[in-house]
Amino acid sequence: MPSPSLTRAAGSGSNEIQGAGLGLRRVFLDEFARKPPAHTYFFEVAPENWIHVKGRFACLLDQVADRLPMVCHGLSLNLGGQADLDIGLIKDIQHFLQRYQAVCYSEHLSYCGDTGHLYDLLPIPFTQQAIEHVSDRIKQVQDVLGQQMAIENVSYYCAPGQQMPEIDFLLDVLERADCLLLLDVNNVYVNSVNHGYEAVQFLRQLPTQKIAYGHIAGHYREHEKLLVDTHGSNVIDPVWALLADAYEIHGVFPTLLERDFNIPPLQQLEQELQHIVKIQQHTTAMPSGAKQAVSGT
């Protein structure tokens, strides 16, 4: 297991996650249930994909949950949308979180529906009105769940009606909603390239105490100034470097590897999980003066 110095609680529950985690996908569920990769210390599921699952898949999920802590990452709350929140879904999620003693529940800072589900994560306008709207909806979800949730900074490719920088929008939502942050490092990198901002400066402005855990993933290079967040390839060196920067600025936080397309064998994913742990251990061993130099404190 990782050193205790890598441990950080996610959310307000008594359970903890640490080290590296992996998003559970059905394509490798059987193998994962038999023997998770050696550097996997927690796992993540989208609760919507599992709430009503029964039979063999449910049994395999139970096996995994008996061995490793679970975090849940939602896909369908439509936090930024105009349609009423689906309270029935939120209550189903609440029961799922309780059943599996999930350490943390997170969702995307985006919208994904109107009169129906749009099956995409679309950007919320960076406006004061949108801040108030989405913050109220997050608070409503937290009231139903009876716990804090984390919101993920998302990748976006246009910013209609933008009135402020992404970082100001994100910080205001975190404060107003009194929620946690799921820090997606790849999304910071993708957005920094697509929208021309400094990724490390973005990281420095985030509140350390709000970070529940992190995500890292691969993306697709459509053009030198257009990256697409696909979760369909290996993590590239600049994103690994940015993850190291994030640890040096905020301290080591649990970090999960996402892979949704072109999924390789578990042995290959294990190499990336091992790389997460290696960066975590290196950061923990750094002299405090070196960390302060990176963080600018």
Describe the fold and architecture.
The chain is 41% helix and 18% strand. With 297 residues, the protein is α/β, with parallel strands linked by helices. It has a single domain (4-295), classed as Divalent-metal-dependent TIM barrel enzymes (TIM Barrel, Alpha-Beta Barrel), CATH 3.20.20. The strands form four sheets. Strands 3-4-5-6-9-10-11-14 form an eight-stranded parallel beta barrel. A two-stranded antiparallel sheet has the order 1-2. Helix 4 (128-145) runs parallel beside helix 5 (166-177). The chain starts with 6 loop residues before the first strand and ends with a helix.
Q: Which structural class do you get from the secondary structure elements?
A: alpha/beta
Strand content: 15-25%
The helix/strand series, from N terminus to C terminus, equals EEEHEHEHEEEHEHEHHEEEHEHH
Rounded mean pLDDT is 89
CATH superfamily: Divalent-metal-dependent TIM barrel enzymes
Radius of gyration: 18 Å
Approximate helicity band: 40-55%
**Any idea how many domains?**
1
Under CATH at level 1, the class stands as Alpha Beta
Form type: globular
Instruction: Count the DSSP helices.
Output: 10
Show unreliable segments: 1-14
Distance between the termini: 31 Å
Strand order in the largest sheet: 3-4-5-6-9-10-11-14
CATH topology: TIM Barrel
CATH architecture: Alpha-Beta Barrel
